Amino acid sequence: MAEGILKDLIKKENLSINVEDVKSAGLITEDSLPVSEKSVKALKKMNIDISKYRSNSIRRETLEEFDLILTMTKSHKTMLRQIAPDILDKVYTLSEYIEDANRDVEDPFGMPQKIYDKTSLTLYKKITKLVEKLKKKGL
To answer: What domains, with CATH codes, occur in the chain?
Structure first.
């Protein structure tokens, strides 16, 4: 959901970031799995279509390609730092990066639709703050 929201806001705000450079990946997934229907439904309510998105698993070699890596939770951040200790300076939780009391965004996997909807709203608010921060950096 975060990737879809960020790409949508980048387009709406005319940021100079290439949306194709925005990637989402999971620590516990396989490549090319479809996005959950609950995620698709949650973002459809925001007029964001992620129905064609597919999962990507995190690979150590690809982590080095990115300028900024944002995780949803502190535990994800810790796991990434264990996988690739040389990327320490570019890994933050989303909340930490936007200076939002360092609150995790929990994965709604396996939860009811209302939890996906709530998570999508939380993500939208946080990613809006992220976009504002990127705009201040001139991106």
So the answer is: 2-133 (3.40.50.2300)
